[in-house]
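Input chain follows. Return structure tokens only.
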Amino acid sequence: MQITNVEVVPVELRLRLPYRTAYHPEIDRVTVVFVRVETRQGQIAWGCAAFDQALTGETREDVVHACRACADRARDLNPLNTEYALEALAQHTQDTPSALCAFDLAFHDLLGLAAGMPLHRLLGGYRNRIQTSVTLGIAPLRETVELARDRARQGFRILKVKGGLDALEDVRRVRAIRKALPQLTLRLDADQGYTVEQALDVARALEDELEMLEQPTPSEDLEALRQVTRHSPVPILADQSVMGPASALEVASRRAADGLSVKLATCGGLRYARQVDTIARAAHMATMVGCVNEPALLTAAGLSFALSSPNVQYGDLDGYLDLVDDPTVAGFLLQEGWLIATDVPGLGCTVDL
């Protein structure tokens, strides 16, 4: 298969519902970069780079430049030789994992199109649906409860509550949601905001309320994370501490968490995400497939990965929900908080640009 044309298209998308996290005063819009790949055989595939500068240090200029360098190189590559082709592009994306992710998605999309199979089946086909959480940003207690009620009315049964600025307030917010919506599953994401002592106090206070506590301590301090994991009555997941296979191996070897969260956008795509999952599986740790604010095209890839592995116990794939004018025409379905794949080949998406 020969690539004849690659287009790189930056797009700014607004969020319908701006929100706050421990390290973002407010998020109200995101920049993403779509990649359109056309082959001599007539296939058209899509990829997408979505990035969070606070997580990876990437800027729009960096990502666009890297995508254009990859576009030039990709014309000399056979995308069906996926391992070789992505290794070649990795040389141009050492500091821009989201750019590598964009081409990783496009090449895997082509692989599915060539095989006539949906990507989740091509990668393993363990199941065809997974329940996703939906995120609540940091907000005052009453507003948090109203946001939770609204998401419950939309059919979601798993809520991920953002925290990390005030441990005592986080406990109050989680308890208020539990009182208002006792049937829902709750997760708390501290976004690196706690000390070891604060994390353990929160975990003990919410032992009967939480399914998990995500990244309670600073990402670079694995010893702190290990101490929390060792003494917490609530499962601890590493998120920002896991930026790819090397960091996943470090977390696993130290037994610094009970599970690993992997985001395609920050680790470089499906190829590296599957390596992270293999490390987690070998270490008897759970995998969560997470996301950034991202178009449904990238969510479709995360969903394909999540559905392919029995080790993926948690889905957190809500990053597309509040994007206004997302050009993706998604092939997957969302029903009562469940993401459901269809049998459309490849990623199952088209992009209207």
